[in-house]
Amino acid sequence: MNVIELRSAVVAYDERPVLRGVDLTVGAGEVVAILGANGSGKSTLVRAVLGLVPLVAGSVRLFGADGSARTSRRRIGYVPQRLGAGSGVPATVSEVVASGRLARRGLRPVRRMDRDAITAALTAVGLADRATSPVSTLSGGQQQRTLIARALAAEPELLVLDEPTAGVDAASQDAFAAALAAFVAGGGTVLLVAHELGPLQPLVTRAVVVHDGRIAHDGEVPAPAGHHAHPEHDHVHPHAPAETPGIWFNR
Amino acid sequence: MSLFAYDFMQRALIGVLITGLAAPSLGIYLVQRRMALIGDGIGHIALTGVGLGLLTSRSPVITAVVVSALGAVAVELIRERGKASGDIALALLFYGGISGGVFLVTLSSGRTNANLMAYLFGSPLTTSPADLLVMMVLGAVVLGVTLLLRPWLFAVCQDEEYARVAGLPVRALNLLLAVTTAVTVTVAMRAVGLLLVSALMVVPVAAAQLVTRGFRTTMHLAMLLGVLASGLGITLAAQYDTAPGATIVLVAIGIFAALATVSAIRRGSRRRTTVEVEVEPPDVVLGA
């Protein structure tokens, strides 16, 4: 059974096509990196898989079932690029991670296994000692690891990560790579959007390059070319979401 | 405390305490979503409900709940679309709501002696036993939603996109939050008035988060501060014969200012110590 099956997917924003008929199949246990330039459609591809953007044509199937089915959603752990804009009120690391457990927990009260899963997720990303810290006091890399722990708390079978290493310090990148390696060793499947693979490179089993809304390459991880190959290449992300301005309470 | 020997003072006190407890418990979700001022808009819309109630000789509280709930759902649907024109749509809704309310209340003025000011700025001293019962029931509904559904509402307000991917019933939770906001506005209407409702939803939360680290503790402290401001406010108002709603809100702002000062001093002293810690040892130590 395939974990992800995207068939002739077309996505358009205001009539402007961003994905022009993309086919992507990801099998269980694969670690697939989606590569591409800014504006190539790589983030849209992932958002289409997650059901966050509607398809104009084509279909998404997750775990052999229709992509919108709630039962298949429960098996996905999603790691966005950044902590959501809704952070006006302080929240501790463990509160954020616990919210990842809700998909599994449903409406039943918290059980021992829920608490264990949250603790295990915090330990996996090396943040067990920061559980009661407010997330706003963490570094960018630690915040990113909090989001990975939130996804892991649901004990997912598929992890989907959007530029997980963008702007993350080296220590966090290593902690992150270790957490991902443990997830893969446990039989998990990974789909990640990346600008550069960094310490994740050895884990990636397949690379898909998106160019102009189509898949330009699907197979081996291509060697970095041009200025990207330069070790001191500075990755600037003009598409990173801007801070949502609050009316009163900017923290 | 002999002031509270009178029945009407006791009802006023209980009414404002319910408000002080319920309003911040809901307001924290609005603040988290950076929609701190939305309660104000729903308050504007509720005035049309009050006007309708007075004009048709029905309980203004019930009509206010219904109209403001419809308004809150409309606001939520506008927010969900996330369109740039949403701002204008909200303005039309809010000012339409308050003008419609004033219009209807004045239209009904021949039939009732209801005072517009009482609805706009609150009049806890005129709380009847029936009013108090309605406030208790609605207040319990608000607290039930905000306390029991905290993990789910937190998840949706903290990162809506993530909640959507995780398969949480995002839309249902958002609509529930919208309707609960409307109910809270109506609960608070008697105590602080429709124009000051938002203050009791937001100011205690703003004050609490100056000194807290987590969401749950912020929520509980905000509720405590809300109760404190309400109780202290109405006592002062009775003592000095000032408007209770405005006095309660001023006390809440006073609490905010006090906590802001304390946390600024604390942060200042902490920064000074960190600077000392971070001074690097000299590479070369010169002999004395």
Characterize the structure shown:
The complex is a heterodimer of chains A (251) and B (288). Residues 237-251 of chain A have low confidence and may be disordered. Chain A folds into two domains: 1-47 and 157-241, P-loop containing nucleotide triphosphate hydrolases (Rossmann fold); 91-156, no CATH class. Chain A is α/β, with parallel strands linked by helices. Chain A is globular and about 45 Å long. The termini of chain A are far apart. Chain A has seven helices and ten strands. Chain B has 288 residues and is mainly alpha-helical. Chain B has one domain: ABC transporter involved in vitamin B12 uptake, BtuC. Helices cover 78% and strands 0% of the residues of chain B. Chain B has twelve helices and no strands. Chain B has helices at residues 7-32, 38-55, 60-81, 86-107, 116-121, 129-148, 150-158, 160-165, 170-192, 197-208, 215-240, 244-278. In chain B, α2 runs antiparallel to α3 and α10 packs parallel to α12. Chain B is globular and about 60 Å long.
Order of helices and strands of chain B: HHHHHHHHHHHH
The whole-angstrom Rg of chain B is 22 Å
Q: Which percent range fits the helix content of chain B? A: over 70%
Most extensive protein-chain contact, per-chain counts = A-B, 37 and 33 residues
The best one-word shape of chain B is globular
Query: Uncertain regions of chain B: pLDDT < 50 for 5+ in a row?
Result: 275-282
Features:
heterodimer, A: 251 residues, alpha/beta, Rossmann fold, 2 domains, six-stranded mixed beta sheet, four-stranded antiparallel beta sheet, 7 helices, disordered C terminus, B: 288 residues, mainly alpha, ABC transporter involved in vitamin B12 uptake, BtuC, 12 helices, 0% strand, globular
